[in-house]
Amino acid sequence: MKIKTCALLLALLAPVSALAADPCDNATTQAQLNQCSAMEAQQADSELNATYREVMAKLKGQPVAIEKLRTAQRLWIQLRDADIAARYPVEAGKNAQVTYGSSYPMRVSGAKAELTRQRTQWLRDTFIDRAEGDL
User: What are phi and psi of 131, to 5 degrees?
Assistant: First the structure.
């Protein structure tokens, strides 16, 4: 009886453990790697947006600070994208994947995720983790 119960329990838990596994752990094709890198960039962007909202909430009642940070954030996004374009320059009218190969989307997404995580950390260090009197 115990063996049947254990077998049944294992059969029920197998789909749960499969869901918990990161599909990117087994990515083998360039298309899969590109997709995983894009998902990483989206996750980094989501974390940045959550941190930005947290900072804006902390700055509530400080309209000048809010407007200055909003402007800085918009400019930072432009800078991030320009930095990535400088890292992987492509002449006008040229195909980036011809220049850099099929890994180009993965490289760009990876760079975006890296820079976005750095910005998130900067926002945390500057506005959230700092002592109240330092703002």
Answer: -65, 150
Give pLDDT, residue 21: 73
Burial of 76 (0-12, 13-18, 19+ CB in 10 A): middle
> 32-55 pLDDT, tens per residue?
999 999 999 999 999 999 999 999
Count of Cβ atoms closer than 10 Å to residue 44 Cβ = 21
φ, ψ of residue 22 to 5 degrees: the values are -80, 120
Cα separations (Å) of 116 from 6, 7, 55, 123? 46, 45, 16, 11
Q: Could you tell me the CA-to-CA distances from 84 to 28, 57, 111 in Å, in that order? A: 25, 30, 7
Output Rg (C-alpha) for the chain, integer angstroms.
22
Q: 69: which 2 tokens? A: 């940070």
